[in-house]
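In response to a reviewer's request, we include the raw inputs and outputs for one of the modeled complexes. The three entities were modeled together in a single run.
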Amino acid sequence: MSSETGPHHGEAVAARIERRWAALSIVIVGVLVGMATFIGIHQATMPQGRVELANPRTLHLSGEFIESNLGTSVEADGSVVVRAVGQQYSFTPQCIVVPVDTPVNLRTTSADVVHGLLIEGTNINTMLVPGYIADLQIRFKKPGEHVMPCQEFCGIGHQGMWGKVKVVEKDAFAKLMASRRRISCVE
Amino acid sequence: MLSSKRLILAHFWLAFAAFGVALVLGAWQMFVRSPFNVWHFNPEFYYRSVTAHGSVMGYVFPTLVAMAFGYAITESALEKPMIGRRWAWTGFFLVAIGAVVAMVPVSLGLASVLYTFYPPMVGNPFYYVGVVLVVVGSWIWVALMSINFIAWKRENPDRPVPLAMFANVAGAYLWGWTAVGAALEILFQILPVAFGLRSTIDAGLARVFFSWTLHAIVYFWLIPTYIAYYTIFPRAIGGRLYSDAMARISFILFVVVAMPIGVHHLFADPQVGAGFKFMHSVFTGLVALPTLLTVFTICASAEIASRLRGGKGAFGWVSALPWKNPIMLATALSLVMLGFGGAGGLINMSYQLDASIHNTQWITGHFHLIFGGAIVIMYFAIAYDLWPHLTGRALNTFGMMRTQLWLWFIGMIVTTFPWHYVGILGMPRRMAFYDYLNPAIAPQAFSVMMSAIGGFILLISGILFLTVLFRGQFGMRSEAGAYRFAIPVHMPARIPVALNSFGLWLALMIGLTLVNYGFPIAQLLALPQTNVPAVYVGAAR
Amino acid sequence: MSEQKLFSFRNSWFSTSVGTTVAIAIASALAGLIWLPLAQPDLKLAGIWDAICSAAGIPRAPVSASVQQPDFKTSNVVLTPDTIGRKDAVSIGRGATLAQRCAICHGPQGVSDANSPNLAGQFAEVTYKELHDFKTGARVNVVMSPFAANMSDQDMKDVAAYYAYLPRVPSSKADEKVPPPPIVVTGAPMRNIPPCGSCHGELDYKAGSPWLGGQSAVYIKAQLQAFAAGARRNDISQQMRNIARHMTAEEIDQVARYYEAQP
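The model returned the following structure tokens for the whole complex.
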């Protein structure tokens, strides 16, 4: 087999090279998928783990998305939770305040159509689909301000749907939280 | 032997006319939302235009090109007149009528919901009816491709189906099945609401159905391009195809894994479980495989052609390629854009990286580079290659063709590279205008201006393209001879039955769909409380 | 070409492709549905079965966290395409009778110069919602609150249907030549102000947003100021307060004068 010549030899060489390339391609794909799995396991950055429902008709009547419960809160167990609603054409609260370097649970839903939110300068990005709650674990490394546009077409006013996020030092946050149960940076 | 020339030309002309109109809209959109424009205008016009641009470029244009090319392949690869030409005309008129029916409400501003529909927003019912007609027209094509394929195999039990036809039927089956997702969404969810029979809709379920169509539709757009890579390019540059079997495997892989991966468009959605997102992400990785195989085979085929022309050296053979040949040029430029676009696609497919660019301008840049760039430039090449055979007239404005292809490439790079960049900065998609004076987004202004300039380069290229075809239609009469496809270096004497039929692959495609989509769809269907009130668009005025 | 049998495990194409596909599907399902969720400490899963259910997307029951109750009355109107129901002749006729007592301020044909809102041709959802909010106290007005207090839900729907049925009449201050100010046409995106028309009907309609053309400038201005100051809070989830609080006094003025002059 090793000393064959002629057209059959050429065909065998061609097939061998081709097989090697196919094997390499499979390895490349395997590495990519493996990387995503590895990061998923070790940095626990996976999509939201549970599906939760919310009725967009009655968000304002009862439950965690009523107006007075929106904004940033410190729960009984000491964790920081931000609750926000997306609607045509604003987020409420339209300015979210969070402490720096603290794990924050961002819970959002939509009151009408499909919206999305992303916080520029971070990799925080989620869809707000009416009927469901988007639940995200987020963390900000530095204090500062970010803009938070709606990233999904939600109607003719979509281009005007920009919110804000203000990241403050931990003691400043504690001071804000001392006087009120729910806070935001809406002036 | 092309005997249905009028049919094929009709498809191509309608496709390219629609493309021309949508291209003008696209360039206008790039301009109005850039800092070149004073943004004191009605944003509704912008969304109207985006809806029209997306619907034409996504549904009408590539579908007609795939249909036209499919008919041309059927007749020239199988070397006999196609079965069902009357039905093909029916399909053509359905697509044409559907396009008009859809575009009337859109241009009146009654259905500015974008081509991705976005329920619970619901626009004028005739927009959706039009889209359904386009899809039904294309399903006639799917059926005809299948019938011609089966009939030929029955008449020629001892010969392998020519590669071009095999690939073409793969594309037809892929489209036939992938269009089902959007069809279910429109027929059972949106239309009853649009016609006022119901007033609630499950937006989350609709997004799952749409993802079924949304990703694999890209491969439906891609398949004519890959057919051109494998069966036109090697012949056009005087070479041979490196491997026939590998080509078949690539198309088979598209059929099997292109479809059950759509949930990677829903990574950031709250209504699908993380486990299914992971499964779809694994299969999304697999779909890179046929492209990697294709790049190898095409580069190897180019090397064969070059060596036959006297090309030497490990890399020196590249310079011996016939660069003045428009097909050579288009393929090379297409592969470059495919390389960049594919690299971007690898970022989109991983959940962790996707989070930083999801629904930003990166995504728009990405699919314009892959579809508008790598794919559409080969549509141009296909048209240039087929035109003399269809019109019976010489097409010899080679300089103009090369200029056109270069302009398309440059325009696409100038448009999409800054587009990707502002996406990384976090610029959201689908907004009519931006206040660039605001310090938070001012750094994005320059890149957006670059993109807008690229948009106009693309417009010029598009005009040149139509000019070349138009002149070809009225050129000197000349007999172009039979239309032929590339032959492989080693023509296999026999082919395993698996590489000459689709039964197994369709079974795997449907099986995988059930595994990957069955449970998420069934469980959302079983949750009645996820139906939310519809929001009618454009109705009150 | 077809002497081989394809659908048989003796055909290596069949066994390899089916075997590989099934293996990848099972491996990715095991990883996605069991391994990855269990590796996430935040999820606090109760075991393998809980991991599978949550990763498959089975919704979990709402968690009970303490909810901060409001210290003011919020609107409890639910606006959907079915809120008003059918606006038939009976409903409009009843509404016409009931509306006689509204005529002093709102005019016999739903139009007046008394700086109270013109109701002729107003979207039915709007009239209904405001009446409902006056009744529940989500919106307070010395004149309107007592009127609404005694109205039944059907009364409010009928009055709303009647006014929606009346044709819009341009106000005495109509002037088509007043150019739309930028804040109306494009809003101010970075201040979260969309174009007025994207909700109020000229571009598109969001249920509950009133038609503004021909309304008294004094009234529009007073309402925008009340929203901005937080004195009026019956806009569900702050949808109008979010906008009004970022408008300048000059912009409020321009908007009020522009809409008064519109048909």
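As requested, we also summarize the result in words. The longest helix of chain B spans residues 43-77. DSSP finds 15 helices and four strands in chain B.
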